Task: structure prediction
Amino acid sequence: MLSRVSQVQKVYITSLSNSSIAQIGDSKCINAISRALAVQREAEIFFGNEGEFSQYPIFSEPIPLPPLEAQLHFQKIDLPPCIKVSHIKINGLASASIFHIGNSDSVYMESRVKHIRQLLNENNKGGE
Result:
């Protein structure tokens, strides 16, 4: 793992929600997964048997990852071993987002959202 020291004088975070993380310090592995069903309806109806991720294939299909076989050509430049920041201001972190000060060896982030729009048919719409 690349080893650098991070120095931050002040951090201001207004809001953390929905499994978000603010971490100060090194981490070996970060694995953040967020799943959501977003249902929009014309009528305010809840049937009681909704919300099972297993009903929707999008939540179980494998995510294709690009192959790691590419040839890399790079030039190494030894930078100072310290990253210095005066202050950081964040309005909000949501939906399994991560704010991390430090070194990370492995990071995997995944977000899956199923949007469902349920409209009333013409027979159920009241009116003339």
User: Anything to note?
Assistant: Strands lie at 5-13, 21-24, 27-41, 82-90, 98-101, 104-118. Residues 1 and 76 are 15 Å apart (CA to CA). The chain is about 0% helix and 45% strand.
